Amino acid sequence: MRIKILQITAAYKPAHIYGGPTMSVAKLCEVLTENEVELEVLTTTANGKTELNVATNKPQKVDGVTVTYFKRLTKDHTHFSPSLLKKLRHLILQGQNQSKLVIHIHAWWNLISIFSCQIAKWYNIPVVLSPRGMLTNYTLGNRNASIKSIIHSLMGKKLLAYCHIHATSGKEKQDILQFINPKSITVIPNLVELSKNDKYEFVQSLEQESVFKLIFLSRIEEKKGLELLLEALAGLQFDWTLTIAGSGEENYIAELKNKVESLNLNNQINWVGQINNSDKFKLLAEHHLMVLSSYNENFANVVVESLSVGTAVLLSNQVGLADYVTKNDFGWVTDLTSKSIQTNIENAYKDKNKRVEIRKIAPKIVKNDFSSEELIHQYISFYQQVN
């Protein structure tokens, strides 16, 4: 009997506002479909505080993947959609005698994920949960901490114990095991869209420039540690610029811009907004160093994306791929203090030879280590094991 995967995610393409997690889910579904795995995506019209302009309640093809969008009643991070949950129950009942079902839920703490898990448990359907960074002490205490604690005590803990957890890095696995006991936990890296261009013509002249070019490319939110980064940059004694690419809450971005002004950094910060997928690799390649001083990051797709074009990275030690970067000497790893960040940026600036070597060797190694062709077999094997 064949396996069918029901992918449950509160947001899906083209909801790029949610950044890396949404793109990782879509990439996984696309590659599974290419490998002839039967799957269907159930998602909502969530697009931040607005809704996607898409047809609802009927399956459609999105880059080859069968996706059904459902309207949500709540316009916040709860993403409550009774019609999605009703459809999930219908598909479970319909498929019980037709195929072996596995339900793969992405992210946690939203009502779609929690109630989908409960429905699957009622019908004894195996659940794979990819928390996407949502099951860490940082996330548990960062936003709506009291509500999360209540949910965890009343039903979350029992539901999570029913799940087979998919972690994207060794660090995420360690974070998860600090406070839950799942049926099993398996580490498989995210599938990441990599640059198809092996060489950019302007890269050779980049190292001849006198200004050190840094780039932050991610969703702009508090956990990214941008305040610490700005304080570190204010202490540098050489010429530099920072490109900030991404979107976020208007109020928070306004706070950051006020901090930039108070530190007298206006002339060195370039705010470029959300960047299309087709443009981000060229933009990354135009910079000497990608910086990500996050307080918590289960994986960080942008690290792989940056290294795929040869741009070195500077990460906090709370980023899931920090161990990978250290192991391969693909950049610098910093503590979460402005002084440590400043020192490591200075080290990156001074070590031109290391940056040139990373530019030379990283693309080939990264494209091998994060090959979709290799990783997808690990995902398929994982589904078969939990079923």
From TrEMBL:
GO terms for molecular function: glycosyltransferase activity. The keyword RNA-binding does not apply. SUPFAM superfamilies: UDP-Glycosyltransferase/glycogen phosphorylase. InterPro entries: Glyco_trans_1, Glyco_trans_4-like_N. Keywords: Transferase. It holds the Pfam family Glyco_transf_4. Residues 203-364 form the Glycosyl transferase family domain. The keyword Cytoplasm does not apply. Residues 18-195 form the Glycosyltransferase subfamily 4-like N-terminal domain. PANTHER family: GLYCOSYLTRANSFERASE. This is Glycosyltransferase. It comes from Pedobacter polaris.
